[in-house]
Amino acid sequence: MSRQKLEKLGLHLPLFPTTSVGSFPKPDYLLKARADFNKGKITEQQLVELERKATAFWIAKQEELDIDVLVDGEMYRGDMVAHFAERLPGFTEGGVVRSYGNRYYHKPVITGEVKWLKPITVDWWKYAQSLTKRPVKGMLTGPYTLMDWSFNEHYPDRKAACMALAGVVRKEVEALIAAGCKIIQVDEPALSVRPEELSVAVEAMHVVTDGLDAYFLAHACYGAFEYIYPGMLEMPVDNFDLEMSNGDLKLLALFRSHPFTKDISFGVVDVHSHHIEDPTTVRKRLGDALSIIPKEAVWVDPDCGLKTRTVEEAIEKLRVCVQAAKAYRNQPRATSA
What we know:
Elements: H1 2-8, H2 28-38, H3 44-65, H4 82-85, E1 91-92, E2 96-100, E3 103-106, E4 109-110, H5 122-130, E5 138-141, H6 143-148, E6 151-152, H7 158-179, E7 183-187, H8 198-209, E8 215-220, E9 239-242, H9 251-257, E10 263-269, H10 279-290, E11 298-302, H11 311-329
Parallel strand pairs: 4-6, 5-7, 7-8, 8-9, 9-10, 10-11
Antiparallel strand pairs: 1-4, 2-3
């Protein structure tokens, strides 16, 4: 059904479409420029020009690697929640909190009614799409994660905050579709944080996607999925982009207990390891997926965003993803689930 939806949208993708989750490492010159901008040494326009240069580099690199569905690489943003909160009235910047490892971010605070005034991601999507004839995903953070990763000092409860944010995210999605975007990824890494709130996340995603003509993915990673599966399949998206390799493919046991009924972007390389997986290992992981999931439903990508890797590591991890996908395209008998 999802492949038919892609065709209806004019997207003729091969079996095992290759893509990535969204973020790529920023080149050294851009890291320096962002630091210089924060110190007032360069103008915002100078920073934007370098962000555009880095975006163009990653679009060209993805084409060179022969990836099927591209991303803009998120050269223009850092934290996935703060970036949006900084651009939405109703949020104020909070104190610094730990995200993971040695990474920190300013946790936003909802202090008033959150409003959408103008597109946040559309111009960057349009720029990236102008550089290639291949489809570029629209990418934004979902309402449940925006709510969960912020402090709420305005709405009466967590659900009310989430639903308000869902309305805001929908407006951004509508703007992407109006600009011509056909594949939209809504990141919900907080999806399994509170299993008792799964219904809230599902209801919010209905607000975001219902009645809109696009192919939707939900990205969730490094979660306790055993507590929300199979209920998470109620989420109104076409594709779940899931971390698989970092967890040694343990999610496949859940899929054996209850059939996985969506398309899946199957993470075949671990983005939190510097090790570059050998092609045999990656092909085996993909083969394990195909023992359970129909070949028509499987996309191939890394576990999560690649921003924590070096440029060289990110390229090589993407390369082995493409190699694995092509190996299975060329062996149709080996792709039967």
